[in-house]
Task: structure prediction
Amino acid sequence: MKYDAALTNAKPPGEILSKGTFGPWAVEEPGDTAVSGEYDFRDADLSVFKGIAGTLASTGDFDGSLSSLSVHGQARVPNFNLTISGNKVPLSTRFEVLVDGTNGDTILKPVTGTIGTTPFTTNGGVIKHDSDPRRTTTLDVTIPSGNIQDLLTLAMKGRPFMAGTIFLQTKIEIPPLTTKVRSKLLLDGRFDLSKAVFLQSKIQDRIDGLSRRAQGQPNSKEIDEVISGMAGSFKLEDEVMTFRALSFAVPGAGVDLAGNYNLKTDALDFHGALKLEAKISETMSGWKRWALKPVDPFFSKKGAGTLLHIKIEGSAKEPKFGLDLGRTSLSICQVGQLKDAQ
Result:
């Protein structure tokens, strides 16, 4: 039979207009019943899902059987946002999915989309396991060349603090939701950030200062607006982001770290090494340069002019950088000299 129907979707709530053909009915196995048509899904309110918000619209067509529907379509959320930030970013996708109409399980094969100006691809599934009352979402997401400002706008309150190009590859798992999305979200992936510039002048000034000292030219004004690079591998579980490896580089300097960032308490705990092209004395000027010359040999290691063990603690808003004295053998006199230099 032919049909023309107006339906109300339960979650997310919205209206679905659909028309097509149905049947003939497969008596012995209803899931084998043929169905095809097209749909128009309007004004779907995503705020019913904890942690996200926006108004979704989607159009497409489908064919197959009730238990194996092939769906082609596109979706748009012009005001997509995470409730932790509230910043609205346009989201659009084109997709091919396989849907089991008898239970709602969905396989993505794959989805291409754009968030802000950043393109991405994803595949995976939204599956209800026998022991769970709700579905688990499992995705593999790749951003081949994205704008870090789009991601920071989505994830953080206020304006983005950095511009640059990001490569990101991660697995995302959202178990059946009984609490907010962030507390259940699982991530496991890697990223590479290039051509990064900090948009807050205070941060960029510090990065420029690091590069000047690292190159042995602490007073050079020609070293300005330096470009940074960052890469790492990470895992997020129970609102704790663990960086198995995190590297940061500017002209003349490189930092290698590992540690955790606790999203619940906004607490940083990172330890690692800072390598500079310049010797420790060359990072200073005037009398301090001469005062530090005796300690140069203690820090000229592993092919670097200077190698220092460092730590980053405090919060993301107010990070505290310092020497990791537990991993650095220094005399009391040398510690005093270095603190004066800092």
Notes: The CA atoms of residues 39 and 262 lie 43 Å apart. Residues 200-342 form one domain. The radius of gyration is 27 Å.
